[in-house]
Amino acid sequence: MISLIIDGQEVKVEEGTTILEAAREAHINIPTLCYDEELSIFGGCRLCVVEIAGQNILKPACATVVQEEMEVTTHSAKISRVRQNLFELIIASHNISCELNCMTCRRASNCELRKVAEDIGLEKVRLDPIDKGYQKDESSYSIVREPDKCITCGRCIRKCEEIQGVGIFTTADRGPATEVTTFSDKGLGNVECTNCGQCIHTCPTGALHEVYHFDNVWDELNDPEKHVIVQTAPAVRVALSEPFAEIDSPTTTGQMVAALFRLGFDRVFDTNFTADLTIMEEGTELINRIENGKNLPLFTSCSPGWIKFIEHFYPDYLDHLSSCKSPQQMFGALGKTYYAEKNDIDPENIVVVSVMPCTAKKYEAARPEMNSDVDYVLTTRELARMIKAAGIDLPHLEERDFDRMLGVSSGAGNIFGASGGVMEAALRTAYELITGEELEKLDFEMVRGLPGIKKAEVEINGLPLKAAVAHGLGNARKLMERIKDGEEYHFVEFMACPGGCIGGGGQPIPTNEEVRQKRIDAIYELDRNKKLRKSHENPLIQKLYEEFLEKPGSHKAHELLHTEYKERGI
């Protein structure tokens, strides 16, 4: 342990700790912009500079390791002056003209620039903003890049490279002309971007955000000719309350449902229903592949960010992907066929809206092979914005139930939202379908939690079924390389985002490890409280097969619920 003095307070920390980390342990706030605790140290913004006794030069707290008996001052007149001057230079490159002012910026309520300005006591900006004439990048179906709002902190570059292992961002030019861009400035939609949206989570400004669909959804809700139905993913319900600062405890699923009805949706359904359906189709596919010994391991296909990743970087393994559409797309297909038929509604008048924790779902819905199953995708953040705009008092709503037809689900559907959840849900069903015996212990804890790669072996009828789970595309790459090198599995779950869907690019900001764990805990609590906890026991899934799909893996099921993917090149 190292003992040092910070602002007159004795602090003891482990050797190798930075001044910034030590100060935070002592509950002393030092402003930062380029720092992200999950990323490597950059030390570019210099807002975290501090004074060290005996040294004339101010040091960046994020990049300076503590030493025995070091005396640190984090706030002084000199430091304040330097921070304010640095911040003025940073803000000058961030376009704050009337066209892009704070009131209309989507990050206005949680902008780190505004927070830092308050932290350092900035009262005025003496420098005029620099208009560099950048054009907004709207080439992607999922993510918009607004270079005028970029402060070149490099966090998106490091997040994409270090955590996701993709690396589509880079810097161009030098000095005041430095710009964060994509390769050859091609635009996000024309490079190997997986649409995961993790760059949005780390961006301290509004320079990166999702492609907004909420205005389109308002138009559809206000059209009397349209029958608008909505589905909600499991990860949305455990995070929706976070953008509402006045809410002390998480809102319930029933309150989320009530809010959606208040917004004007004709029917409110649950993506967990088609998560159960996915398990039936994917479980059947797994059993068939094990029996035939072909294209093993089977890779899950629920995460569209992972799908685009394998299309770009591991196309030789596309035959290993499950042919199942994701639960979002299965729902859309059923909404415009089964639901339309049972309710005598012209499919042309049905609008399917998804509320997802994921920015990549917007891209997935736009894929031509998805046949326009889903019309619009809202992120959790967009739904929160709509609820606020409608003046709905979310925490005081009386709970309502999902509409029954496509709204009954098992706890297995809920845990799809957490890393390892798809694997666990599949194992619950596969074990009973193969053995014909009831599973005594439903919780497969070995595939739960936040380790980047998890492995499990479950004996089913004498077969030691080998499974693996990876979340975050950086971990997906590591596991794929191990598989290329000969590691053998029967079934592998891949999720593009750290923590799984609960850490999706469309979830509320901030999303860090502590927040992810809280959401995961809430997901498993929902599962524990369900009467139904196995997908194959869902009575409405059974009814769907009896009335419409015949059986898992049938011709009709393949026609509606399955698809194929293609190599995209690098």
Which sheet architecture does the biggest sheet show?
5 strands, mixed
Quick one: CATH class of the largest domain?
Alpha Beta
- What is the molecular shape? globular
Secondary structure class reads alpha/beta
Low-confidence stretches: none
Count of discrete domains? 3
Distance between the termini: 47 Å
- Based on DSSP secondary structure assignment, what is the total number of beta strands? 17
Outline the structure in words.
The structure is a single chain. With 570 residues, the chain is an alpha/beta fold. It folds into three domains: 2-75, Ubiquitin-like (UB roll) (Roll); 98-210, Alpha-Beta Plaits; 215-561, Rossmann fold (3-Layer(aba) Sandwich). Helices cover 34% and strands 14% of the residues. The protein contains 20 helices and 17 strands. The protein has helices at residues 19-25, 77-92, 112-119, 155-163, 198-202, 214-221, 234-237, 253-263, 271-292, 304-313, 327-335, 338-342, 360-366, 380-389, 411-414, 421-435, 473-484, 513-528, 539-549, 555-561; strands at residues 2-6, 9-13, 49-52, 59-60, 71-73, 143-145, 169-172, 179-182, 208-210, 227-232, 267-270, 298-299, 350-356, 376-379, 453-460, 463-471, 491-495. The strands form five sheets. The chain has a five-stranded mixed β-sheet with strand order 2-1-5-3-4, with helices on both faces. The chain has a four-stranded parallel β-sheet with strand order 11-10-13-14, with helices on both faces. A four-stranded mixed β-sheet has the order 12-17-16-15. Strand 1 (2-6) and strand 2 form a beta hairpin. Helix 9 (271-292) packs across helix 16. The chain is globular and about 80 Å long. The two termini are 47 Å apart.
